[in-house]
Write a structure and sequence with these properties.
Elements lengths: L1 H5 L14 E3 H11 L4 E4 L6 H9 L3 E4 L3 H15 L3 E5 L2 H17 L3 E7 L2 H5 L10 H5 L5 E4 L6 H13 L5 E7 L6 E3 H7 L14 H13 L3 E5 L1 H5 L3 H11 L3 E3 L19 H7 L2 E5 L27 E6 L13 E4 L2 H9 L10 H23 L7 H14 L4 E5 L2 H9 L8 E3 L9 H12 L3 E6 H5 L5 H6 L4 E7 L29 H6 L3 E5 L2 H14 L3 E6 L16 H5 L1
Parallel strand pairs: 2-3, 2-4, 4-5, 5-7, 6-7, 9-10, 9-11, 11-12, 12-13, 14-15, 14-16, 16-17, 17-19, 18-19
Antiparallel strand pairs: 1-8
Helix pairs in contact: 2-3, 2-8, 4-5, 4-18, 12-14, 16-17, 16-22
Bound molecules: thiamine diphosphate (TPP) and magnesium ion.
The site of thiamine diphosphate has 18 residues, from helix 17 and helix 19.
């Protein structure tokens, strides 16, 4: 093995003699590095333990987690932030399955990631002879991934990784599964042949230029509008076409709504931002331009009462322009009058090269929105100014709002129900891709994985606002945060339970309600256990001081913010989706 170690030989200066050999381990590492992938999120064990060691020895950053699901979420959000596929590396069967939720979530959210899992011996697995961690992982991953591949021979590693990279980032990004059977790693290959087998992927996410007639159709419809609206989705944030999007919004003068992870693409305080008048603009708009936003449940499927329809499935009468990289997206829920297919940057640039002028939206539309905004913002300011004891979501999040305003480069990770919904509406974002949250599924458990990855790939401080239930899904990763000494400040909105902490067992028995936790749990001690800073905060002043100190010191910090256990509502803002709650 000694010789193999020395001729990882990516160094072009090093002459490689024909007797030198490489192996599967090194080819995987070399193929990733050749494609500019420098970080692996994972968890070691058979058969990939040596791969983690050797990757680190070869200069890659290997971030080792306590559970694969968190490594998977980390990889997926690294993909979102960097436009390079995030790599999650796991062991076979159980490790693979632990990573699979994150892979499926990545596909749903259009985050580019590659789940690389070691697997057991093919012959034994296929004959179901009971191998160590036997499982047909490729078959299981396929329906949950954008693409899934298996490599059996060392000389195919280069192709396998090239295909995985292209599948993850080209077109609409998504999760890709790459199956690497244990036997692949020790396979040896002549070093020169190995080097030749690797592929540096050229233009992994090619631009997709929209058709001129589609651009004209979109512009014509947009210019005909009396009450136009732009909706920015996380696809727009992913595209990194920030300047073009800002220019389009400002040149057209059209009010816009950012979806959750598009907040900050333009500052939430922008005069055209209509977030504070959302329930007015959706039903009233006549032409809506969606940019990287899908008409899924988060936008009430583009119809029903939210959009001014009479009944829950009725069309509200809006005409839609949909800018999306996927031609299949149009007409998913309602008719799209002007689909504009291409990458967001190219589409927005094409709209900007509009030969004429954009007519300013009618003044009565803008002033009607302005009035509603002013009223709602004033109402919110009044609520935020109160300081009840114990704290409620508003008084605690008022502090987070100030801290983000003072530190606009900090990344805000956010999950929970009330802890999510209140944060989204109270905490303004000022820069693109600074808000990372539960996404399309509303999934709990992304918190610590997202926080670790955000800190690792951006170097910026991270503030994770977590419901106490949400935090529990990935809480053990505070050890990971401490181990890598990451500038992560976790703020737990501790209301003793799921949605709220005051529920009783309806039957009056000994067991607590399924929705509540141990009262007054001291989550901050978890961070102290690993050498980080723990703070118990019962007032906004204590919370503010602790957050300021965390940002100043960049030390791993967990603030246990004690919230009135009766302050939340069932399911936060989406109570209407909850069948039992409906009956009440
Ligand atoms: C993986 C997963 N499991 C369960 C849920 C259902 N769920 C939605 S929000 C939530 C937790 C809400 O409680 P908390 O995080 O404490 O937020 P709060 O409303 O109390 O602020 C749960 C369990 C989910 N969304 N995802
Ligand atoms: Mg809670």
């Amino acid at each position: 093995m000694g010789t193999v170690e020395t001729q990882v030989a990516t160094d072009a200066q090093t002459p490689v003699s024909p007797s030198q050999v490489t192996d599967g381990f090194h080819l995987v590492i070399d193929a990733l590095k050749l494609n500019g992938i420098d970080t692996i999120f994972g968890l070691p064990g058979i058969p990939i333990t040596d791969l983690t060691r050797k990757a680190q020895a070869a200069g890659m950053r290997v971030i080792s987690f306590r559970h694969e699901q968190n490594a998977g979420y980390a990889a997926s959000i690294a993909g979102f932030l960097t436009q390079k596929p995030g790599i999650c590396l796991t062991v076979s069967a159980p490790g693979f399955l632990n990573g699979l939720t994150a892979l499926a979530n990545a596909t749903t959210n259009c985050f580019p990631m590659i789940l690389v899992s070691g697997s057991s011996e093919r012959e034994i697995v296929d004959l179901q002879q009971g191998d160590y961690e036997e499982m047909d992982q490729l078959a299981i991953a396929r329906p949950l991934a954008k693409a899934a591949f298996r490599v059996l021979h060392a000389e195919d590693i280069g192709i396998g990784i090239a295909r995985a990279i292209r599948a993850a980032v080209s077109g609409r990004p998504g999760g890709v599964y790459l199956d690497l059977p244990g036997r692949l790693f020790p396979q040896s290959l002549d070093a020169e042949a190995g080097k030749r087998s690797l592929i540096k992927v050229v233009d992994p996410a090619p631009r997709q230029i929209p058709a001129p007639e589609a651009v004209k159709r979109a512009l014509d419809l947009l210019k005909s509008a009396k009450r136009p609206l732009i909706i920015l989705g996380k696809g727009a944030a992913y595209a990194q076409a920030d300047a073009e999007i800002k220019a389009l919004v400002e040149k057209t003068g059209i009010p816009y709504l950012p979806m959750s992870m598009a907040k900050g693409l333009l500052p939430d305080t922008h005069e055209q931002c209509a977030s504070a008048a959302r329930s007015y603009v959706l039903p009233e708009a006549d032409v809506v331009m969606l940019i990287g936003a899908r008409l899924n449940w988060l936008l009430s499927h583009g119809k029903g009462k939210t959009w001014g329809g009479k009944q829950s499935k009725d069309w509200g009468g809006q005409k839609f322009i949909q800018v999306d990289i996927s031609p299949q997206e149009a007409d998913s829920n309602v008719r799209i009058d002007a689909p504009l297919v291409g990458d967001i940057g190219s589409c927005v640039s094409a709209l900007l090269s509009n030969p004429g002028n954009f007519p300013k939206p009618p003044a009565d539309w803008l002033s009607a929105i302005g009035e509603r905004k002013a009223k709602n913002i004033a109402k919110m300011a009044e609520t935020l100014a109160k300081s009840p004891a114990p704290m409620n979501f508003h008084s605690a999040l008022n502090v987070v709002r100030d801290i983000i305003k003072a530190n606009p480069d900090a990344i805000l990770v956010n999950e929970g129900a009330n802890a999510l919904d209140f944060t989204r509406s109270i905490v303004d974002m000022y820069k693109p891709r600074k808000r990372l949250d539960v996404g399309t599924w509303g999934v709990m458990g992304v918190g610590m994985g997202f926080s670790v990855a955000a800190a690792v790939v951006t170097g910026q401080p991270v503030i994770a606002v977590e419901g106490d239930s949400a935090f529990g899904f990935s809480g053990m990763e505070v050890e990971t945060i401490c181990r890598y000494n990451l500038p992560v400040c976790v703020v737990i909105m501790n209301n003793n339970g799921v949605y709220r902490g005051d529920e009783k067992n309806a039957a009056g028995g000994r067991d607590p309600s399924p929705l509540v936790f141990v009262k007054d749990a001291r989550y901050e001690k978890l961070m102290e256990a690993f050498g980080g800073v723990g703070v118990h905060a019962t007032t906004p002043a204590e919370l503010r001081k602790a957050m300021e100190e965390a940002l100043r010191s960049r030390r791993p910090t967990l603030i246990n913010a004690i919230i009135d256990e009766a302050a939340g509502t069932e399911s936060g803002r989406i109570t209407s989706l909850n069948p039992t709650a409906k009956k009440k």
